[in-house]
Amino acid sequence: MSTRPTRRPERPHFSSGPCAKRPGWTTAALGDALVGRSHRAAPAKARIQEISDRSRAILGIPADWRIGLVPASDTGAVEMALWSLLGPRGVDLLAWESFGSGWVGDVTKQLRLDDTRILQADYGHLPDLGRVDFARDVVFTWNGTTAGVRVPNGDWIDRDREGLVICDATSAVFAMELAWDRLDVVTWSWQKVLGGEAAHGMLALSPRAVERLESHTPPWPMPKIFRMTKGGRLDESIFEGSTINTPSMLCVEDALDSLRWAESVGGLPGLVARSEANLAAVAAWVEGSDWAAFLAKDAASRSCTSICLEISDGWAQGRDAKQVTAALKDATKRLDAEGVAHDIGSYRDAPPGLRLWGGATVETSDLECVLPWLDWAWAEAKAASGGR
Description:
The chain is α/β, with parallel strands linked by helices.
């Protein structure tokens, strides 16, 4: 049996979605929410527009891009883009984890596009980015939330591309530098790096994406919540504080609080630094660990937000995945019961392991504090299963 640690994280919230609230958050942050008011009223629309304006300033989104609040979290934002924009060109679909694979399924099985290429890699790896054909449309996740693998930068994306580049950036934005000049559609939610509440997505469109919207009519029926044009022209109201369906003004207020906090820690550079410090803390621990390793094999593509670990000790290597998964569930239950780490099991489709959220709202001191608890919990769980 290992020694049980005594020091506990101040906040045991390491879930990869919804993620930890910003440090110091209380419900008092919602005190000025415009509850009981129409979201179409001028003050409410101004609050919604403020989210887009503050996001643009923090992230460095070009002035000619449109930014809007859309239904159904990041998933809704990605689906709006796929259903509205794809069709005129062939599509290259990149997948190396669960959510990227989900977009592959939507394009090939729901939209049923004929001209698709799937560039796939196993968990822990990136596909060959050099094979991407930018004469075609491209769909990819900047950061693979369930694999802990991110693209290292945007240099692989052609500036002179002919097709559109559609990027699901939900677990990357506000913690990583995005190459906006090489992207055409970017989506995210407030639930990840901002630690916001559920159900709302953000959609950012480049002028090239707007041009596609206004020149292309999809051949399939378009649900109301996906429609971004009226009479063949962009519905500008969506990107001026109006929304397709009713948003929660409590969630809006919470998002504004998160954005103000982001500004207070130095904007994007400060947010990136906080997240990278979290990755560095885990990396230092992994280097000395005799049982845990990063699922992401290449340090250059290792996520600083969704930090995914696999079991590397000899005991696990000699057992099947069900036994290892059972031991991991035992370990995570122990951590949860101790109140030191909640919701850190690997995603259901991912290889057996652990997943620690390292986004900017997580304090590095809390991550450093929880790591000895991981050692303890794994040793206890392994011993309980007959391992040593």
